[in-house]
Amino acid sequence: MQRLVKIDGKIRTDKKFPAGFMDVVTIEKTGEFFRLIYDTKGRFKVHPISKDEAAYKLCKVRKTMTVRRAVPVIVTHDGRTIRYPHPDLKVNDTVMVEMATGKVIKHIKFEFGKLAMITGGANIGRVGVIQRREKLQGAIDIVHVKDAIGNSFSTRITNVFVIGEEKAPWVSLPKQKGVRRTIMEERNARLERSAAQK
Fold this sequence. Notes:
By secondary structure, this protein is mainly β. It has one helix at 183-197; strands at residues 5-7, 10-11, 24-27, 32-38, 44-48, 56-67, 71-76, 81-83, 94-98, 104-108, 115-118, 127-134, 142-146, 152-156, 160-164. The chain has a five-stranded antiparallel beta sheet, with no helix packed on it. Strands 8-7-6-9-10 form a five-stranded antiparallel beta sheet, with no helix packed on it. Strands 14-13-12-11-15 form a five-stranded antiparallel beta sheet, with no helix packed on it. It is flat, with a radius of gyration of 19 Å. The termini are far apart.
């Protein structure tokens, strides 16, 4: 066992270790760094990143509570429990966690005008700007999002993961930048590529 692979800064030797969304995979011997992120077809993409970007990961706040002796904590989407968080943090906000220390560097609020990635449902992997939040009595809230080319779509609030400001994502994105193309657009792009190769 060579112990060459790190996930979120910790050496992992189990071949079946369950790495998930936003996890950072490091292979120090080859100097390679990757982030697990969704592509627009909903598949996990092993996205190459720089060493600087590999020093942190984004985590969505799933729960806020107080534990024994009135210590405030937040619980994130990857199971981390972080003590004494910023008092402004609420559920659905995103925090930037430093790998080396496990501490929060900065955070971003779940608000209109923020850039978000969809992590579930029919629109998984798409990236767009949050337009509005539709509150439904006795049901899960619906969030309306518009992508970079002007297409609008909506999804449950539980599927929305804020990744940065409108023009400045905190993590690098795969090739299509979270814009889903139609079947005809994909077909035309394939035909153009094949024509260029002839």
